[in-house]
Amino acid sequence: MTTLTHEHEAHPGRQGPAPPPRGWRRLLYPGLLRAAWMAPLFFGIGCGIVVLCRWWGGWQPIWFGEIIVLVGALIAGPIGFLAGIGAFDYWVRYAIGSPTKPEDHSGHGAYSWRDYFRVNTDHKVIGIQYLTTTIFFFLAGGLLAMLVRAELAKPGMQFFDNQTYNGLFSVHASLMIFLFVIPAFAGLANFVVPLMLGAPDMAFPRLNALSYWLLPIAGIMMLSSFLVPGGAFAAGWTGYAPLSIHQPLGTIFFNMGVQWAGASSIMTALNFLVTIITMRAPGMTFWRMPLLVWANFTTSLLVVIATPFIAGSQFFVMFDRVMHTHFFDVAGGGYPLGYQHIFWFYSHPAVYIMMLPGFGIASEVISAMSRKPIFGYRLMALSLMAILVLGFSVWAHHMFVSGMAPWLRVPMMITTLMIAVPTGIKVFSWLATIWEGKLNFATPMLWAVGFVSMFVIGGLSGIYLGAVPIDIHVSDTYFVVAHIHYVLFGGSLFTIFAGIYYWFPKMTGRQYNEKLGKLHFWLTFVGFNLTFFPMHLIGTQGMPRRVSDYAPQFANWNLFISIASFALGASTIVFLYNMVTSMRRGAPAEANPWRSLTLEWQVSSPPPIFNFDEIPQVVGNPYEYGVPGARHAVLNGDRAATETEVRSR
Amino acid sequence: MRRGSIVQLIVIGVLAGAVASAVALIPNWLPSSASREAGRIDFVFWFVTGICIFVFSIVAAVSVYSVWKFRVKPDDDSDGPPIHGHTGLEIAWTAVPALLVTAIAIVSAIVLAKDDAAGANPLRVNVYAQQFFWSFSYPGYGDKKSDVLRLPVNRSVVLEGHSKDVIHSFWVPEFRQKQDLVPGLTPTLHITPNKVGTYPLICTELCGLGHALMRSRVVVMEPAAFDKWASRKGA
Amino acid sequence: MAAAHAEAHHGPPIANQSSRVSASVLGMLLFIASEIMLFGSFFTAYFFVRVVNGIDWPPHPFELPVFVAGVNTAILVTSSFTMHWALQSIKRGNRAGLQAGLLLTFLMGLVFLLTQAREYSRVGFAPHDGAFGTIFYCLTGLHGAHVFVGLSILLFMTIRAFRGHFSPEHHHGVEIGGIYWHFVDVMWIVVYSTVYLI
Questions:
Q1: Which end of chain B is more exposed for a tag (fewer CB within 10 A), N or C?
Q2: From-to residues of CATH 1.20.210.10 in chain A
Q3: pLDDT tens digit sequence for A531-569
Q4: Which of B29, B97, B200 minimises the CB distance to A540?
């Protein structure tokens, strides 16, 4: 972390925020110390409200554990924590009508490691906060997966009982989806998108800080469900009603964890959209935006429109449980399939929320490292929009065997298969970009090309799943497990790694260890394929998913998969070692080690605290590699050149 | 492009296709087929597999060739040719996949329609799922009850699904047919068994802590043996 | 190079404004889009219960207080006009009009919410009385929560208005809060017509 204080040396006059007061006043100063007493205080207030309401309404028992946990620990306590670290200070001051201070940027930037543990309004700091937090939950989720594979190494029960096993894979999936893939992309974009746009920060820096701090709350909530009586939530990350309604207490930790994570991603998405629409540098038209920005623009639209539906679905399950409502209860007039429709109306677009930013990263890396313009830039951007639109019309393909209206199946199959067209366009365009390029296989490029090849396999198995008759046979089997891991691990995770390695020099000012990076890639690539490819086979042969025990005929393959998965898990150690040592002792990075044209590479590594001294002037497209004299943007100190260049174009 | 490189490209494509075909053909991807529906579904499976091998070979050829031929030494700082796009190619790789998926959609829709149609004089069976076991009743045979699903061979069967608590899913891999059983709904499933034998019946929708063990059997019998069993009193 | 220049600056460069819409208005509109989808998920549940399951609406012996809720609707709709008046007043520099408009809007919103609470206690069924009760309470309750949030925003705006923080040049706070309040009103018309009228 020490290298991240680089900015400090660059600005000897600036010392960051005023030092916290000494003595007992320190307890009132926004930060973790204040959070440490405000969270329990709010928890107490939450409990008090519950008890008062129950006493007033005459409900027995007055002290009812489940609702105490829900209101006190899962809602009020976290709000107290946020208030304590100071996420609301500015807004509270505004709300009570006291004059708001002129912005002194004291909450901006990182001068020591402590600045990563407070409410920080600098998008670069928030990006790194996001990434470290999500990598922590990635490790937690990965360890859970190792436990799952240990149990599955042999048929019969080895280490866990059934309920615990169900909890393991449920928490694994939830952490990986809500606390790793979605926010890791948000973290990368947080760091990069304002720089790429030529903006000094995001549109709403305080909202940005808040949306980060919701994440640890959601993640700790989901993890801590292992500690409550009855164990973790065990109805899968899909939490199908009516099963999820009749599960032990841990389920509401999932219901509420999803709300916090969802709120976080809606806020970030809103912030991205406003930033992209209103804060582009002069000359940066939509058709000059890098594809990563395009990807985050479409993703954010998906998040803003779709995420409220998962919020709704989890509210309904929670109400059915604690208020005994009848959303999904047949006896009371409810409709169980309604849950799946509402859930998948979010969770199918969520698949694209987890993939489109990766498309953007792959485009950046592949173009810069092939030294060629991206092939068919406009079609690449338009295919993102096509996926966005189609993405809202395919949710019921998760429900081909669910018992929904049979006539819905063929239309949903057609829209589903049609999504292969824009995704195909993207794959072919990447291949055409590589074609005749000058390929530099540094680590990010390995991950990006690895992503394209794995994503092709994941896409092709998606065609099988899209065709209803095959889906009827393989749905809810290991074939599906293989497919989602090919698109989410081979797709999303590979691009996250590509992005982390690609922007590592920019973020830390140091270069990662190239040898270890390549080793990490090859270990992961081989381990990944050995783990997940055989799952296709045992799936079609008849092994259902989400089982702790299975028929003896699958024993050999499962043992093989478990061993491969441990090797895959071990490859993460290489990654961590590389990150930690390179951050501390890596060679200082140049401003633009990849000789990239996009704006984030035109400033120092790490970037100055306010990104640019003057807003740059964009004069051309972002991928004009090999075009003589072409420039994407002109930075300060070059005004004269700017004006002639702008006029000549 | 030189002729030599086209030949190399084709060779890689053929090799990739051969590897993919070997992966598709050597292991036993599908369990044995024991129903008429299974035969049709297998046809779609292999139809899609053929298309996928074709697409895979092209992609593999281009990417392997590129990775092999276009990598540069670390000290080579030159740029590639500034090619921005090619309208013809872009139209081609929009249109061809669209055609391929349309073909898959048509084949799938036809098979689905056939699989959803019950034959003449179907046998009706009620399937009851609850945590965590299966039971069956035969309304045509005095509501005879059974814990094992017994079916006559070569007769169309209509299964009517009932769930008593949460969502379960009825799956017999050898029949290739699957249906979720949802409380409050009575979805139907059509099967025409065409091979005598005993097959596993598996619950594939997570239904709680006993989900992994919620299994039963399907016994497909000769019609005479089935009639004899079905007209006997008791289970 | 960039770092050396930064010495002269003590704040970020002014961002380029690349759209005619201001960031905060756009942010509020997007937030409302998200809110509409949240209501959408509740209406989807309503659709499944009422249309797909086809239950009686309201089922015997329950009855909906259509008239009282209608009066309540009129109050809420009127409050949208006073909100608009408040905004127009401050645009013309009429601070008294702003204060009166905001205060009236707040009071009408409060009356609406209290009437709704009164209705809950007298309506004769609870959220656990079948799917009808569930949908009724959750849709009106979701809207009630939004009225509560809207009232809080109105309260903050009113406080600031009385402290003299708004002027013809700076009234963004009123404008943005106003957009939210109009959204809450329009949403109520949808809830009222689907839950009470049809």
A1: N
A2: 355-587
A3: 999 999 999 999 999 999 999 999 999 999 999 999 999
A4: B29
